[in-house]
Amino acid sequence: MLRMFRLPDFSVVVWLRKTDKFEALKTEVLHAAAIEPYESTEYQGMVDFHWSAADLHEAKRLAEALKGAARHPELVLLRIMSRVDSVDSIAIKDERRTRH
């Protein structure tokens, strides 16, 4: 029987701009997280990382561990994503460029 992947109720998401500082920042982020992301993709000069969290408390703890890396301009997004209707997602850093 084929099992479908189900997105977690809480995820912590980081977007890194792929510059000459990418490898060092990626190492810093992965070390700070202390767990492997469940997903990572590269698209249009960005690499994103997604970590699963069992609950909001765990997601906040993980996001707090990643806050130090958010000081870098190459870290474009640090966000707690919630799929729980009664809990809003939380943006810690969001410097995505939008087209108008």
Written account of the structure:
Helix content is 23%, strand content 34%. The chain is an alpha+beta fold and 100 residues long. The chain has a domain at 18-51 and 60-94.
Distance between the termini: 46 Å
Globally, the shape reads globular
pLDDT < 50 stretches: none
The arrangement of helices and strands along the chain is: EHEEHEE
**Average residue-wise pLDDT:** 93
Q: Please tell me how large the radius of gyration is.
A: 14 Å
Topology:
Layout: E1 10-17, H1 22-33, E2 39-43, E3 46-53, H2 56-66, E4 75-82, E5 90-94
Antiparallel strand pairs: 1-3, 1-4, 2-3, 4-5
Short description:
This protein is α+β, with helices and mostly antiparallel strands and 100 residues long. Helix content is 23%, strand content 34%.
Main attributes?
100 residues, 5-stranded antiparallel sheet, 2 helices, 5 strands, 34% strand
